[in-house]
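Hi all, posting the design record for the shared folder.

TITLE: backbone redesign
STEP: 1 of 1
STRUCTURE INPUT:
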């Protein structure tokens, strides 16, 4: 049997598959190549844009710096012109001074120098004289001017590194006699402050403060039944004598005080022990023996014997080895005061003074 001859067909399945694959490959390659090109263009554009922005910023900054540089140059130019003008004026003044110096006669110059030397010598002599007078008068911070030109031989020991002034401001300081004390006790505050005995006591404190060495320290306590510093708030502390304003203020504060109430030496001597360091000199201004101790007595009257006992009990509170200089303004009706205070001064190696009414 004869074999049937197969017919040729150009569009068979195999041919179409090959063509389809070929066209697909071409399309895929085309798409891939197109996509990568776009990405590269975008990336290149972004890099260029960033570089352009950076260059623009640099240009802007450069323009600003150029403006500042021009302004600075203008300022420097102005300063240079001012400096040149000032230098020119200074040079002119130098030339004028040189001309004046050249015109001065050497003989006149020597004469002027000799006159100046003589004047300096006179001033040095006057200075030495003043220094000698200061050494004679003492190295005082304050001055105390009394009535007339008088010098007093007191025997008081006013030296020391730490000087404590104890000032009695009890009612008995209103007068020398009991009747005057009773009469003034009922007067006004102004009249109490003007009591002659109280004024003398204040002047005594002022005189003592004017005699203290300038390198010492001090404290002023006013006492009756209580103890008060002349500078409030400084209790227990030492003050510098070279602080003139503070010392003047202390004296003014004392002048504003009013004598009143009784006298407690025991309380003020207890306050002495609170000072640190202890004083090396105590000056006590008073007019009699104490009338009470730490507590107020129950009775209105107190005998002389009881006052001596109060005094002796108070003395036991004093620290040892501290000289006590007593200035006593005797009070009527207190006959034991002088002997007791004199014994206190002797036992402590201090001094005792009962001044006249015109002292200091």
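Okay, here is what came back for every position:
SEQUENCE:
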């Amino acid at each position: 049997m004869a074999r049937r001859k197969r017919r040729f067909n150009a569009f068979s399945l195999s041919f179409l598959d090959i063509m389809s694959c070929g066209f697909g490959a071409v399309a895929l390659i085309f798409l891939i190549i197109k996509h990568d090109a776009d990405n590269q263009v975008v990336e290149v554009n972004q890099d260029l844009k960033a570089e352009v922005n950076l260059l623009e910023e640099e240009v802007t900054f450069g323009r600003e710096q150029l403006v500042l540089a021009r302004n600075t140059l203008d300022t420097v130019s102005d300063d240079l012109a001012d400096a040149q003008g000032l230098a020119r004026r200074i040079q002119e003044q130098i030339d004028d001074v040189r001309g004046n110096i050249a015109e001065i006669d050497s003989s006149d110059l020597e004469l002027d120098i000799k006159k100046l030397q003589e004047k300096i010598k006179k001033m040095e002599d006057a200075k030495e004289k003043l220094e000698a007078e200061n050494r004679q008068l003492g190295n005082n911070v304050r001055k105390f001017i009394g009535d007339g030109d008088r010098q007093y031989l007191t025997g008081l020991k006013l030296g020391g590194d730490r000087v404590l002034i104890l000032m009695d401001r009890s009612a008995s300081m209103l007068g020398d006699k009991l009747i005057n004390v009773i009469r003034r006790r009922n007067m006004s505050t102004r009249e109490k402050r003007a009591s002659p005995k109280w004024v003398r006591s204040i002047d005594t404190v002022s005189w003592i403060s004017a005699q203290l060495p300038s390198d010492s320290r001090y404290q002023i306590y006013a006492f009756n039944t209580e103890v008060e510093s002349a500078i409030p708030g400084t209790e227990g502390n030492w003050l510098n004598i070279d602080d003139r304003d503070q010392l003047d203020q202390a004296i003014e504060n004392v002048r504003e005080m009013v004598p009143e109430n009784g006298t407690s030496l025991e309380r003020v001597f207890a306050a002495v022990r609170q000072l640190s360091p202890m004083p090396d000199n105590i000056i006590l201004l008073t007019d009699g023996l104490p009338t009470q101790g730490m507590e107020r007595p129950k009775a209105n009257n107190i005998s002389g014997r009881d006052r001596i006992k109060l005094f002796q009990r108070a003395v036991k509170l004093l620290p040892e080895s501290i000289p006590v200089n007593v200035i006593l303004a005797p009070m009527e009706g207190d006959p034991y005061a002088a002997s007791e205070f004199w014994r206190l001064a002797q036992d402590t190696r201090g001094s005792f003074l009962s001044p006249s009414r015109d002292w200091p």
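COMMENT: The CA atoms of residues 254 and 287 lie 17 Å apart.
Let me know if anyone wants the other runs.
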